[in-house]
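Input/output pair, single chain:
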Amino acid sequence: MRRYVLRLFAKNFGAPEMAANMGSSPIPNYTIDNIPVTNGQIEIGIWTDANANNWAAFDNFELIRK
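Output:
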């Protein structure tokens, strides 16, 4: 049985890519903590390798400076 991947990622911030793998059940929050932005930019996104007609829904993304 093939396992499909759904991943929240952060990259291009001056360090190696960081990610949070998501399952198939509804979960209210996914977090990638302590992203060391050293170049003044960041790319946030979602990646999957699921089959056609599989889907995911996201309401919003938020970056919080600590």
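The radius of gyration is 13 Å. The mean pLDDT is 85.
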